[in-house]
């Protein structure tokens, strides 16, 4: 471990390759001038990020999440474009068709505050009186004019674009700061959640974690539903592991069970369920400060006011600082590619840049929730203020950098560290790494070693669940059932024992109730 800690002296040099952050004066903030709390939120954000006061725009808007296309044009798009012109934030000229196009701009990023509507609904035509509405087809969904306000605002300075369906995002899959890309689009993020307090906490956490770095566990929940989405999640799991972030990967078709005992979760990516469930239903669960969490679902951000419905609002309510989502059906290929998002965040980009590099479509359904300038992995180089809760995770990162191609030496060093420091977190991380390397037998025994060192029943249960997961994925159903029965009984006083019961009900469902006699 001493060798790993000494390596800290060498790590800051790695930060030289980080992308340049967006300039504060390249950000404009939009708030609802009819709601005092929206203005207060805008002022707090500007102060925290050093954004000049002349970059704030207040618009008188209705206090609702969903608006019509006419309301969007009248209350948001036209007044905002007029403010850009008045403040000389862009230079536009007409093209050959007479449409205004951006030639240069001083503003690259817009941040919408809670109070600014988030969805534009374009209702389908009503059928003739007396006739039933036709069934909703894929063609009807993909040719809709409904969109997220934020995604529509990306094209604020470009006239003449079709409102039907999605537009191609020229920033998609790029790997350069938006200021260098020099594109005629705006990157639009949003600080929004079910309450004003959650919004303030999101901003404060982003600033605090940029000083210390985001350290903790990764969790990737793979649905085994559609190959494209599953591959994104596999890529995320691999990239997190290669970054030295110990990562739990669940490959069962069901999402992680209710009350699964997660701890220190810094990164979560999962799919595919309509409403929040699993570990996030546990009243005691909280993400690590500054966490990035997202669940891939067509309507993950269909609303932001109910912290128990959909995914975006609940994840933020559980302590995440950043998430992404969709307002209406986006279709998988036109939503955020989670692997690109994660990769760009790990590379040091801001949340809003990473999110738009990951999204192939504009004028569509995507939203980015959290401080747009937040760079969660700014301190992967080992710099920043050292916190006691982060020391093991920092050491795991160092070990990955020191022995990237020698997993056996890395494993031996971490096992020695666990023994010297009497900290089972090292062993849990070794077990997760062994799983990533397909060494399931040694992983299971390592989780058993970690269980002996852990003193909290909560953590011991997690180790037993890991072993049951290994047996389940290895088709050793009888062993998995026995392990889950033992865990359900042993930890019966814990609310988290529901996780064992949930998996047990899948593998060994109870018999159906007896049929009621006919009367």
TrEMBL record:
Q: Name the keywords, alphabetized.
A: Signal
Q: Which domain of life is it from?
A: Bacteria
Q: Residue span of the signal peptide, if any?
A: 1-15
List the protein's name.
TIGR03790 family protein
In its UniProt entry, the species of origin is given as Haloferula rosea
């Amino acid at each position: 471990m001493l060798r790993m800690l000494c390596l800290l002296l060498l790590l800051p040099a790695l930060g030289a390759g980080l992308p340049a952050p967006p300039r504060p004066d390249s950000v404009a903030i939009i708030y609802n001038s009819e709601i005092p709390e929206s203005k207060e939120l805008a002022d707090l954000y500007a102060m925290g990020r050093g954004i000049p006061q002349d970059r704030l725009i207040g618009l008188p808007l209705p206090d609702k999440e969903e608006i019509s296309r006419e309301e969007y044009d009248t209350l948001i798009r036209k007044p905002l474009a007029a403010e850009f012109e008045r403040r000389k934030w862009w230079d536009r000229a007409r093209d050959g068709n007479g449409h205004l196009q951006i030639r240069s701009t001083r503003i690259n990023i817009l941040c919408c505050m809670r109070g600014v509507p988030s969805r534009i609904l374009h209702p389908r035509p009503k059928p003739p009186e007396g006739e039933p509405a036709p069934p909703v087809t894929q063609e009807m969904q993909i040719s809709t004019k409904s969109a997220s306000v934020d995604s529509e605002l990306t094209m604020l300075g470009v006239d003449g674009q079709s409102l039907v369906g999605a537009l191609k995002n020229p920033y998609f899959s790029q790997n350069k700061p938006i200021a260098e890309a020099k594109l005629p689009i705006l990157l639009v993020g949003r600080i929004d959640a079910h309450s004003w307090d959650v919004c303030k906490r999101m901003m404060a956490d982003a600033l605090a974690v940029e000083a210390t770095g985001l350290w903790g566990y990764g969790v990737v929940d793979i649905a085994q539903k559609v190959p494209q989405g599953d591959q994104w999640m596999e890529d995320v799991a691999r990239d997190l592991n290669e970054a030295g972030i110990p990562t739990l990967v669940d490959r069962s078709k069901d999402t992680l069970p209710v009350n699964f005992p997660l701890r220190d979760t810094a990164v979560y990516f999962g799919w595919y369920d309509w409403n929040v469930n699993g570990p996030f239903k546990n009243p005691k669960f909280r993400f690590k400060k500054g966490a990035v969490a997202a669940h891939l679902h067509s309507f993950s951000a269909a609303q932001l006011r109910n912290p128990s419905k959909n995914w975006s609002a609940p994840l933020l309510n559980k302590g995440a600082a950043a998430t992404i989502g969709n307002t209406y059906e986006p279709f998988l290929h036109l939503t955020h590619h989670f692997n690109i998002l994660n990769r760009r965040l790990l590379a040091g980009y801001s949340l809003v840049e990473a999110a738009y590099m990951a999204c192939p479509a504009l004028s569509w359904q995507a939203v980015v929730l959290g401080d747009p300038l937040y760079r969660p992995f700014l301190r992967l180089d080992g710099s920043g203020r050292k916190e006691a809760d982060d020391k093991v995770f920092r050491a795991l990162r160092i070990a990955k950098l020191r022995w990237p191609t020698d997993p056996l030496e890395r494993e031996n060093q971490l096992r020695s560290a666990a023994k010297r420091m009497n900290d089972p977190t090292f062993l849990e991380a070794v077990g997760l790494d062994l799983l990533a390397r397909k060494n399931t037998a040694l992983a299971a025994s390592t989780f058993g070693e970690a269980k002996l060192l852990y003193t909290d029943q909560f953590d011991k249960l997690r180790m037993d669940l890991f072993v049951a997961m290994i047996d389940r994925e290895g088709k050793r159903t009888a062993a998995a059932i026995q392990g889950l029965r033992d865990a359900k009984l042993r930890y019966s006083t814990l609310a988290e024992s529901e996780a064992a019961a949930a998996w047990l009900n899948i593998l060994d469902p109870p018999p159906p109730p007896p049929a009621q006699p006919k009367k």
